[in-house]
Amino acid sequence: MKHLLYFPFLLVLISCGQPSNDQSIETPVADTWDAETRIIELGINLPQPSSPVANYVNAVRTGNLLFLSGKGPDLPEGGYVSGKVGQDLTIEEGREAARLVAISQLAVLKAELGDLNKVKRVVKVLGMVNCGPEFTEQPQVINGFSDLMVEVFGEKGKHARSAVGMNALPSNIAVEVELIVEIED
User: What is the pTM of this model?
Assistant: First the structure.
């Protein structure tokens, strides 16, 4: 009888000590991560990148770095998300605006590279939030941009970042973001 009382304990102990071959936990490896597939899985339709409104370009490549000009939150039906976050817009609305900027920047990357899988690393993000002087939640707003970069690129989407408040942005847009990415040779 004593033997039976200890048997379940030993079974658990043996089972816990054995290495598991269960691969059910999905942890994508950088080499197998597919940004193009992630865009589809996330249900994102990349728009045609907007043309610059002055004497500049959407992106400039130098070596293996691609510098993207600042973009605003383009609405799918046209126009922009505008207003000051913390006054005209809530933090969550600002966060959604930053996510729209991420989609615009992904569209620029796709147009420039032809394939989002050519992005080796999102290096640096500068997020600017249109807000009043008392607003201090810029990082929470720009998380809308940063989170989508990680959703699309996985670990390669994690980046250095600045999130700053601005007294005004062009056309009263709520958020503007520029970024630098490293690309495959």
Answer: 0.82
